[in-house]
């Protein structure tokens, strides 16, 4: 998927910007005695690559979180 869709998933709270951010949010919630955020998806940036007709793009890997 593209970067714009990855940003939209992060903005709506469906996926963390990074797994490090998800771990920090879970630790902060645990410290406060609150329920940690539950993200439906995980995002992982992939290597930039040239695509004919589009130029160099940076795709994102989208997967379900357990």
Task: Explain what the structure shows.
Residues 1-37 are annotated as: Disordered. Residues 14-28 have a biased composition (Low complexity). This protein is of the alpha+beta class and 66 residues long. The chain has one domain (3-64). The chain has 2 helices and 4 strands; from the N terminus they run ααββββ. The strands form 2 sheets. Strands 1-4 form a two-stranded antiparallel sheet. Strands 2-3 form a two-stranded antiparallel sheet. Strand 2 (49-51) and strand 3 (55-57) form a beta hairpin. It is elongated. It starts with a helix and ends with a strand. 9% of the residues are buried. The mean pLDDT is 90.
Describe the secondary structure blueprint for this structure.
Blueprint lengths: L2 H10 L6 H14 L8 E5 L3 E3 L3 E3 L2 E5 L2
Antiparallel strand pairs: 1-4, 2-3
Keywords:
66 residues; two-stranded antiparallel sheet
Give the amount of beta strand, in percent: 15-25%
Question: How are the strands of the biggest sheet laid out side by side?
Answer: 1-4
| Uncertain residue segments | none
Q: Largest sheet at a glance?
A: 2 strands, antiparallel
Distance between the termini: 20 Å
The tally of domains stands at 1
How many helices? The count is: 2
Helix percentage: 25-40%
Gyration radius, to the nearest Å? 14 Å
Mean pLDDT: 90
What is the chain-wise order of helices and strands?
Answer: HHEEEE
Report the strand count.
4
- Class by alpha and beta content: alpha+beta
Shape estimate: elongated
Region (Disordered): 1-37
Biased composition (Low complexity): 14-28
């Amino acid at each position: 998927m593209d970067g714009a869709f990855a940003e939209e998933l992060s903005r709506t709270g469906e996926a963390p910007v990074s797994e490090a951010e998800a771990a920090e949010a879970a630790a902060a919630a645990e410290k406060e005695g609150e329920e940690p955020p539950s993200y439906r998806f995980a995002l992982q940036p992939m290597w930039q690559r040239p695509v004919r007709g589009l130029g160099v793009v940076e795709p994102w890997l989208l997967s379900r979180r357990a």
